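From the methods appendix. Each design record in this collection lists the tokenized structure first, followed by the designed amino acid sequence. Records were kept in a plain field format so they could be parsed without special tools. The example shown here is representative of the layout used throughout.

RECORD:
FOLD TOKENS (151 positions):
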């Protein structure tokens, strides 16, 4: 019997491509990615005379909000430009993928595809002259669809 290896949480990449574009928007790797979530609301009904059970009806799907963090660099203001462009044109969207790699990082194993993405929050790093830590910026993205592609 073959055993499957679990994914490691550090072998991933994020690709964001603006609508109508072909090259990825983001040129830097993200250190953290959180918010790949999908849920379903439901409604509970009681059937007359059936006191021992409930009927569950599927309702609308709810999706999470992706949060990405990366080290800020002097030549990487691409996220800030995307946010500015989206404020100027609220209809502007992008497609994004979160790619999971094998444990050794050699091959793609799965891909979460996020449709019609919109940047909803961009946070500059806190600045502190006493601390020598890397400046980390944070981006939050709302998405309208989420699908998983297994490789």
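DESIGN:
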């Amino acid at each position: 019997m073959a055993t499957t290896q679990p994914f490691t949480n550090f072998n991933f990449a994020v690709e964001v491509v603006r609508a109508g574009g072909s090259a990825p928007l983001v040129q830097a790797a993200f250190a953290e990615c959180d918010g790949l979530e999908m849920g379903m609301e439901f409604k509970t009904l009681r059937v007359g005379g059936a006191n021992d059970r409930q009927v569950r009806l599927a309702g609308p799907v709810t999706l999470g909000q992706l949060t990405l963090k990366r080290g800020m660099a002097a030549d990487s203001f691409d996220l800030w430009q995307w946010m500015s462009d989206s404020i100027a044109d609220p209809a502007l969207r992008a497609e994004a993928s979160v790619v999971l790699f094998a444990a050794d990082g050699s091959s793609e194993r799965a891909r979460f595809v996020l449709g019609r993405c919109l940047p909803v929050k961009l946070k500059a790093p806190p600045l502190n002259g006493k601390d020598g830590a890397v400046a980390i910026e944070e981006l939050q993205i709302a998405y309208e669809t989420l699908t998983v592609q297994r490789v």
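APPENDIX NOTE: Residues 21 and 94 are 9 Å apart (CA to CA).
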